[in-house]
Fold:
Amino acid sequence: MRFALSAEHTEFASVLHDFLSAGHRNLATIGITELTDPVDLVVAFEELGHHAVPGPLVESIAVVPALVACEGTASVAFPPHVPYAPEADVYFLVEDDTLREAGPGAEMTSVDPTRRLFELVGGPVIATDVPAGRAFDLGVLTCAAQLVGLGRAMLEMATGHAKLRTQFGQAIGGFQAVKHLLADVLIGLELARPLVHGAAVTMSPRDVSAAKVAAGDAAHRAARTALQVHGAIGYTAEHDLGRFLTKTRALVTAWGTPSMHRSRVLAALCEEVPSR
Structure:
């Protein structure tokens, strides 16, 4: 089965790319906040990651609408996962299949200063028997799509820098060792991307977790390589790469750690193996 994007999705990604490149951030004007189909969401969130757009986007656009109808920016917590909270207008807490109103409590430590984390304190019950499993998987899936977009952006930055930075009388991108580093990043991203698209089609927990692991690994490799290629300038706060590095580091463990998702994949595979 192929998981290539349709012509419509490719055009949508291009329009969103141009919209974000122009500095626009009101996503409602382009219809992003109305998306519900997982494939549409994946296309959108890859571009949002590619531009490192801040805010509780996963929670507000993908997860909360799968649980309850609400107005404004929302955030939601699936304990023990800590939510991106302070920019939200409304807060929710999911306990098993029960949805509660919530409010922000103590602030948590975050590796990304633009992604502030808070504990949520549960309040009155809003609904029971909510589709918590699907909502959580939408959060995992869209986070994975963001990671693919972040990885693409960092690869582009590293490639551009390698073409301009000279050493020993030539651009560093001409050295085979640098070429191999960048090629490995591209291979990882090209392997992760169809896993994310495929998971959007099946929406099975196994496929979603596999996509998150692959996207996280690929983005992490992209971050390490981009930092290595940039050298000391990559560490500085004034360079754009810094925003992508910290966001990647935060999202790799957001919506479940790599070990948690590997365990989900293993459990699903073990269930599929017939007993002897």
Q: What stands out?
A: The chain has a mean pLDDT of 92. Helices lie at 7-21, 38-50, 57-63, 132-164, 176-202, 205-230, 241-253, 258-272. Residues 7-132 form one domain. The two ends are 30 Å apart (CA to CA).
